[in-house]
């Protein structure tokens, strides 16, 4: 199964780091990628430039508008992503715990949805929730 | 070669995991080590060939890689410090033994894993989730689908259970003789819970849920190989005998068909023979319990050539023995039904009316359904209708509701 790990942190925390701290965090991230690669869990991933470099595109009635800035102001900003290959959600969560910025901000794990060609892309129906083993 | 490695994964991965948990003293480290070992296998086996004892190779490779990882992560110091503090064999310490060539030790590890996943300090739903994921090798998503919950809810349940095992220092061991009986009951209960989740799934529900019943039977077989106790025999027999009727229990609309109306030609004879044989073995030990007696009752039903030919004298006798082991209102109710079949509906009605004095049973739809059935057979349609309506107001499951609805209408038609 493929899972996308979205890494978020409050950029002001990172901006407040000394250059040694920043360099060490980056080294840690590289080591983390190395490790995931060796284990065969790493499919893709990148760190992103800070949020002030963001542009947002919308197309309405065939017309594109481009806005300077992110599509939503949030307390923590998207800082990077990993596309992971894991046996199941629990394995993906274990891998996500090793992503260094998980200590600073949050890592959101989302299972990918394989889009079926020629089929309606419908969401899986939300089943009524009930207590599992009762 | 890839296929061969996949086959070895399917066959050995749980066994290897169980041993790695003991050696590394940590579920997550062990899981990672298992994964690493298979990554190494994919790299090395195509060139060097499959080792003579693949699971031993995987254990030692996984263990080596894990310790290497710990060193590289500079956590080694902390872990070695912990090792000084913790007793050998508990979760959280690394064992350095080279015994994993020994098949017996590997088997013990599997039992350790089963007993740890079913530890009484974990909530029942956590026991089930842990057993299915760690012992049976199902994915979080598969278990969530089977239990009609979201993968993230289930994932959290598993994470919490693992944290508890680690933080509460739940020992990774097979309980000693003094505790074995009680702890084995806990394990059997989890296996039976899994089975019932699959068995009670209606035809309209996902195949995934039905497949839980197969998973529970597989687990029962494995448990019997590892621990040939009478009640393990009894539980496996009980599951096989119930499951043998799988294809006759429902019609194509997903309606429940009562035992006496089932087409016995649809019952799986080979499975019934296997179940009956296990029951005999369990009864011969003279040290059996409630599962064996329930299996014996199921065997009497399964071996009757027709509903009319059912030996109710024997079934009533088995219920009397079962009540000695487990005196529950539900078993009392089933006993009342057997008495009604043996001595007539009036005798059953006296018993069920006495049982309905019990507050809990009054909320149990099947108690009212049984009472309604006795009244119907006694030609008292008005009272039967009232009892069916009461049962219907308490029943929750679709197939059961439809069955009771049909009976209600039948009674109402009689009264017109």
What does this structure look like?
- The complex is a heterodimer of chains A (134) and B (416).
- Helix content of chain A is 25%, strand content 31%.
- With 134 residues, chain A is an alpha+beta fold.
- The model of chain A is unreliable at 119-134 (pLDDT under 50).
- Chain A starts with a strand and ends in a 23-residue tail after the last strand.
- In chain B, helix 6 (124-135) packs across helix 8 (151-167) and helix 12 (269-284) crosses helix 13 (290-303).
- The longest helix of chain B has 23 residues, at 2-24.
- Residues 84-90 and 96-100 of chain B have low confidence and may be disordered.
- Chains A and B meet through helix 3 of A and helix 2, helix 6, helix 7 and helix 8 of B.
Q: Which properties best describe this structure?
A:
heterodimer, A: 134 residues, alpha+beta, 4-stranded antiparallel sheet, two-stranded antiparallel sheet, 3 helices, 6 strands, disordered C terminus, B: 416 residues, mainly alpha
Write the layout of secondary structure elements.
The complex is a heterodimer of chains A (134) and B (416).
Chain A: E1 2-9, H1 11-15, H2 19-38, E2 42-47, E3 55-60, E4 63-68, E5 77-85, H3 89-96, E6 106-111
Chain B: H1 2-24, H2 27-48, H3 54-72, H4 76-85, H5 103-117, H6 124-135, H7 140-146, H8 151-167, H9 177-199, H10 207-226, H11 230-243, H12 269-284, H13 290-303, H14 312-325, H15 329-343, H16 345-355, H17 359-362, H18 365-377, H19 381-394, H20 398-415
Let me know the largest β-sheet of chain B: none
User: N- to C-terminal separation of chain B?
Assistant: 73 Å
Q: Helix- and strand-based class of chain B? A: mainly alpha
Number of strands of chain A: 6
* Overall 3D form of chain A: flat
| Major β-sheet strand ordering of chain A | 2-5-1-6
What's the number of extended β-strand segments of chain B? Answer: 0
SSE pattern of chain B, N- to C-terminal: HHHHHHHHHHHHHHHHHHHH
Helix content of chain A: 10-25%
Poorly predicted regions of chain B are 84-90, 96-100
β-strand percent of chain A reads 25-35%
In angstroms, what is the radius of gyration of chain B? 25 Å
- Class from secondary-structure proportions of chain A: alpha+beta
Strand content of chain B: under 5%
Integer-rounded radius of gyration of chain A: 18 Å
- Binned, the helix content of chain B reads over 70%
What are the secondary-structure elements of chain A, in order, as H or E?
Answer: EHHEEEEHE
Number of helices, counting only DSSP H or I runs of 4 residues or more of chain B: 20
What is the typical, i.e. mean, pLDDT of chain B? 89
């Amino acid at each position: 199964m493929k899972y996308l790990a979205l890494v978020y942190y409050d950029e002001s925390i990172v901006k407040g780091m000394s250059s040694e701290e920043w360099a060490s965090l980056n080294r840690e991230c590289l080591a983390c990628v190395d490790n995931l690669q060796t284990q065969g869990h790493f499919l893709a991933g990148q760190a992103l430039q800070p949020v002030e470099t963001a542009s947002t595109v919308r197309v309405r009635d065939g017309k594109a508008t481009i806005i300077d800035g992110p599509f939503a102001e949030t307390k923590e900003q998207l800082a990077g992503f990993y596309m992971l290959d894991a046996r199941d959600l629990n394995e993906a969560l274990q891998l996500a715990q090793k992503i260094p910025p998980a200590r600073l901000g949050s890592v959101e794990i989302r299972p990918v949805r394989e889009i079926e060609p020629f089929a309606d892309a419908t969401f899986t129906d939300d089943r009524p929730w009930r207590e599992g083993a009762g | 070669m890839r296929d061969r490695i996949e086959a070895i994964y399917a066959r050995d991965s749980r066994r290897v995991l169980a041993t790695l948990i003991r050696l590394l003293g940590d579920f997550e480290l062990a899981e990672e080590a298992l994964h690493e070992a298979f990554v190494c296998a994919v790299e090395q086996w195509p060139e060097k060939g499959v080792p003579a004892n693949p699971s031993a190779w995987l254990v030692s490779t996984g263990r080596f890689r894990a310790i290497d990882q710990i060193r590289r992560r500079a956590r080694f110091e902390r872990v070695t410090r912990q090792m000084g503090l913790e007793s050998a064999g508990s979760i959280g310490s690394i064992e350095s033994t080279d015994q994993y060539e020994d098949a017996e030790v590997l088997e013990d590890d599997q039992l350790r894993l089963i007993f740890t996943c079913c530890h009484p300090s974990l909530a029942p739903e956590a026991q089930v989730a842990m057993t299915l994921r760690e012992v049976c090798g199902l994915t979080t998503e598969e278990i969530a689908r089977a239990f009609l919950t979201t993968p993230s809810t289930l994932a959290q349940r598993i994470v919490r259970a693992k944290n508890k095992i680690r933080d509460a220092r739940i020992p990774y061991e097979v309980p000693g003789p003094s505790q074995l009986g009680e702890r084995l009951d806990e394990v059997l209960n989890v296996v039976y819970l899994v089975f019932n989740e699959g068995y009670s799934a209606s035809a309209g529900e996902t195949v995934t849920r039905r497949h839980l019943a197969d998973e529970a039977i597989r687990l029962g077989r494995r448990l019997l190989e590892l621990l040939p106790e009478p009640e393990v025999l009894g539980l496996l027999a009980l599951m096989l005998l119930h499951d043998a009727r799988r294809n006759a229990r429902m019609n194509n609309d997903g309606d429940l068909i009562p035992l006496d109306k089932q087409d016995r030609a649809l019952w799986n004879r080979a499975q019934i023979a296997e179940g009956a044989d296990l029951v005999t073995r369990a009864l011969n030990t003279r040290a059996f319990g409630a599962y064996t007696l329930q299996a014996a009752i199921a065997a009497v039903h399964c071996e009757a050539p027709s509903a009319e030919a059912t030996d109710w004298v024997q079934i009533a006798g088995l219920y009397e023995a079962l009540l000695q082991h487990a005196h529950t209102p539900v078993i009392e109710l089933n006993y009342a039904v057997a008495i009604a079949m043996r001595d007539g509906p009036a005798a059953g009605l006296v018993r069920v009316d006495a049982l309905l004095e019990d507050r809990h049973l009054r909320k149990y739809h099947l108690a009212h359904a049984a009472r309604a059935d006795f009244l119907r057979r006694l030609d008292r349609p008005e009272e039967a209708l009232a009892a069916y309506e009461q049962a219907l107001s308490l029943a929750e499951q679709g197939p059961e509701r439809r069955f009771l609805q049909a009976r209600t209408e039948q009674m109402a038609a009689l009264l017109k």
